[in-house]
Design a protein that fits this description.
Elements (H helix, E strand, L loop, with lengths): L1 H10 L1 H17 L9 H15 L15 E8 L10 E11 L1 H5 L5 H11 L8 E15 L16 E14 L4 E12 L3 H12 L17 E14 L6 E12 L1 E14 L29 E16 H4 L17 E12 L4 E10 L12 E11 L1
Antiparallel strand pairs: 1-2, 1-12, 2-3, 3-4, 4-5, 5-6, 6-7, 7-8, 8-9, 9-10, 10-11, 11-12
């Protein structure tokens, strides 16, 4: 029964994966009528498609004509079939990509680049492309029973994070490798996240959460995180499917290392490096902003990750005392995370995505010993 309990929540992704593959097959089949046209027109169309799928090589230029984009993401556990209101309960973030994000006064680009240089994350290639983005957001966690006023040591604690982050991506267009680094500065334990949840529950006549005064680092505490990821595009013979692997490590409020394998399948016209949902950590980096040109495409995507987690401030607390925390020995050190989603992108630059994501239980025993599952909606635009 414990095995079913730990893994049953993730098995629901199989149905979405099967549906996505069916939609992808239909999407790929939609391209077949082009074959019936005259050869010159078909050849020209194929050339245009391949041009969209590969970013142009810009030699001796680390910041080529960057595509600007923005993205707004909203995660919530009610966006899951059946609905729920526990664990990772909601998150919202806004991301900006492009040269404006690189030169913005409010950003962490300078310390991020300094850290990259100190750690040796500087890559040289004949076909190197560099992109920048910045993100602001907030997300929160609650226990299963939100009607309890007092601290509940048998379930996961209330926790929240408000943050600002900057990201830098170095894409090797020759070897199909992308290095992405992110620096995040934020605050745990502020009242904004709980206040927003209270407001939404009041407007929707839902049960109001009562225990936010018991959250991790109540009153506020600074925190941060540095993440470095290496993505590798895996060659395949299909024009409609892309597969890549990612190795990622982070130090900070989440300290962990992970390996993931992901794919997308359908009508794909954007560069493989422009879409990376495998880098999401709850609300952070869940917006999938793109450095791709505005194109008309639609595709199903999914992936799985193995995570070795050494520390999670959202469960274990940080330096300030908190009413409910867990020691490292009370947590599972290895997690399995999986996700599946579908994206519609339009030639005017807008794209809409839905994702279902979850991971195995982090807490070993008690009421908090359960798998996490949530859904997300992302609206983005390339300019």
């Amino acid at each position: 029964m414990n095995t079913l309990k730990h893994w049953g929540g993730l098995l629901g992704l199989q149905h979405l994966i099967a549906l996505g593959l069916a939609l992808s097959s239909f999407t790929a089949a939609a391209d077949i009528p082009y074959l019936a046209r005259s050869e010159p027109e078909w050849t020209q169309l194929a050339s245009l498609i391949e041009e969209e799928k590969r970013p142009a090589l810009h030699f001796d230029n680390r910041n080529p004509r960057a595509i600007k984009s923005w993205a707004l993401a909203f995660d919530n556990d009610v966006l899951v079939p059946g609905g729920r209101d526990q664990d990772y309960t909601y998150g919202i973030n806004f991301t900006q990509t492009g040269d404006d994000a690189r030169t913005a006064f409010i950003s962490l680009n300078k310390p991020l680049i300094g850290l990259d240089k100190w750690l040796g994350n500087e890559h040289k290639s004949l076909g190197l492309q560099e992109t920048f983005s910045r993100e602001i957001g907030a997300f929160g966690f609650t226990p299963e029973d939100i009607s309890i006023y007092r601290a509940n040591p048998n379930d996961r604690p209330y926790a929240s994070l408000i943050y600002l982050s900057s990201s830098r991506e170095q894409i090797d267009l020759v070897d199909n490798i992308a290095w992405k680094s992110t620096l995040t500065i934020g605050a745990l334990g502020l009242g904004l996240v709980g206040g927003l949840q209270d407001l939404v529950h009041e407007v929707t006549s839902s049960e109001k959460p009562q225990g936010w005064d018991n959250q991790i680092s109540e009153g506020g505490e600074l925190t941060g995180r540095y993440v470095l990821a290496r993505q590798k595009y895996l060659d395949n013979t299909s024009d409609n499917t892309e597969v890549k692997s990612t190795v990622q490590a982070s130090v900070g409020y989440l300290t962990e290392a992970s390996w993931s394998l992901s794919f997308r399948s359908g009508r794909i016209h954007s560069p493989w490096s422009s879409f990376n949902p495998e880098l999401a950590s709850y609300g952070e980096k869940s917006s999938y902003s793109s450095n791709a040109k505005p194109v008309n495409e639609r595709y199903f995507w999914a992936g799985i990750a193995l995570k070795a987690r050494a520390y999670n401030a959202l469960v274990q607390g940080q330096f300030r005392a908190s009413p409910v925390t867990y020691d490292h020995g009370e947590l599972n050190p290895v997690l399995v995370e999986a996700w599946a989603g579908y994206t519609f992108a339009f030639k005017h630059g807008y794209r809409v995505s839905y994702v279902l994501r979850g991971h195995s239980s982090e807490i070993k025993k008690g009421a908090g010993d359960r798998n996490l599952l949530w859904g997300g909606i992302v609206v983005a635009r390339s300019l």
